[in-house]
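Sample 3 of the quickstart, ligand magnesium ion:
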Amino acid sequence: MSALDTPPILTLTEVTKVYHARQGLFGRAGDPVIALDRFSMSVQPGEIYGLVGESGSGKTTVSRLIVGLEKPDGGRIDFSGASIIGLGGTQRKAFTRAVQLIFQDPYQSLNAHFSVFDTVCEPLVIHGLGNSSERLTKVCQTLQVAGLQPPESFLNRYPHQLSGGQRQRVAIARAMVLEPDFLIADEPTSMLDASISFQIFQLLHRLRKTFSVTMLFITHSLAAARHLCDRVGVIYRGRLVEEGTATETILGPRHPYTKALLEAHPRFGNHDPKPLSTLREEERPVPDASHCAFYPRCRMALDAVCDRQAPTLRQLEPGHRVACFRFE
Ligand code: ADP
Ligand code: MG
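Result:
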């Protein structure tokens, strides 16, 4: 695996994103939502980095900012050593080829009126790559790579004629047909059964191995991240709270929130749940002053510390960082 001291391929530095909610039913604007709060992370070339957090923590916002679907309100985003904000002309075109996004829901992300061939070929057309016979060859090769075999039998099918797993493979083929350097998979299996999800993980693993594509894998499941990722970052309410190798973070979590995520996991379907050791059942009132984002829910919070300031990430061991005053 690439060493942490090689320059990262992607860096987010102190990125802030605030959404101004639409007007409410009675014409009042809602409170602004701070989706990302001085959020920093970086991804090394060739690795699979897992960004893990519960729903609403800001994961999709990270992916939308990276591909330019949203603009940050503060901070910077660099790809291959250059800022992606304000890229123009040929540089933007090269960037939109190099970075591809796979969405959560293959039912929504595929155009119902496009055949599999049209769907996978479209990026080649947009980027003006190949003539029609070269495009057909490339589409078939890519379908094969994505595990849709024999590829010819899929070319003229439409999304409604495919299973959920096959649709997600088509979406992956569409992303891979441009031979990107960087793939973002935003909860790519959350709409799929466990066994199909596992096959998609195996496919992503194989893509990394075969094409050395770097991946940002976004998930709410630490178990999924452990299967697939080299490193993991845990995001809580728009801030990175812990980061380390997948094994370290999942076998030896330090942040109370990471511990709660792990403890909660095997409890699904448990009808007599015990309280989680690090997570309060009810939130504490939020102090006015700046405070740790997890303070309201944390059972381990230190009085007169966690409610007074926000912790920053500190290194515990090489490559393992945690933002928690318990470790200062
Ligand atoms: P995740 O992908 O981790 O579930 P998101 O990045 O989608 O989280 O959302 C982070 C926060 O920003 C949530 O509180 C969400 O409600 C809010 N949010 C996301 N998109 C918008 C939007 N377009 N307008 C207003 N609020 C939004
Ligand atoms: Mg999301």
